[in-house]
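Fold Annotation — chain and its backbone

Encoding — discrete vocabulary of local shapes
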Amino acid sequence: MLAGVAALALAGCRSASLDVNDLGLAPAPSGFSADSAHAYPVHGIDVSKYQGTIDWNAARQGGTAFAWLKATEGGDILDDRFLENWRNAGAAGVPRGAYHFWYHCRPGVEQAAWFIRNVPRERNALPPVIDIEWTPFSPTCTRRPTTEEIVREVGAMADVLERHYGKRPILYIPIDVHRERLVGAFRQHQMWLRAVRDHPKNVYEDRDFHFWQYTESGTVPGIRGEVDRNVFAGTRADWIRWLQTHTAG
């Protein structure tokens, strides 16, 4: 995996706009590096079995404010370390949620059923994430469906998950999938965007975001090797309000 909230009010509260320019957090338009992401105060990670055993207490103490854990893929794959990470991150007090890697050759309702079968329904969990990527090296499915099909099937999964968990799923969309299929789609969902060479506002057409994955080669205490790092597009106060809204259900 993984992978400016312009004039966007947080659901259920009256916080100010999270536009990065309004917050004074927008990086310079040129000379970008991953260091620009450190202008954002709230950082988190996403992990899968490939990070091995994680010391979640060390990760939290090292500044990890949130984590999304790979849970499922398609309709029959469960990440080997999902339940371990779910249990241990929660015990360490790291706000965590689960993400599903989308499979372009299976109906959305079937993928939703598999996710629900494996991911606990907990009031304090972050909203579920659907990770929509192209899969050119998959041994079983290299399809690139039409916009209409992706919107229909991902939307069907999202609807089922929202009914079950009481939280609208966040969508993780890399630049190529967005540009080729999803510009203007899924306006009702919060977005998690991937951009490791520029700010998302410079490389995503007409798209606001709540989370930004800015590197795949980050380092975090408690994790051996590299890990995806992310930021929340807002202030610390905005983050607290967002958590209060999105971890109730």
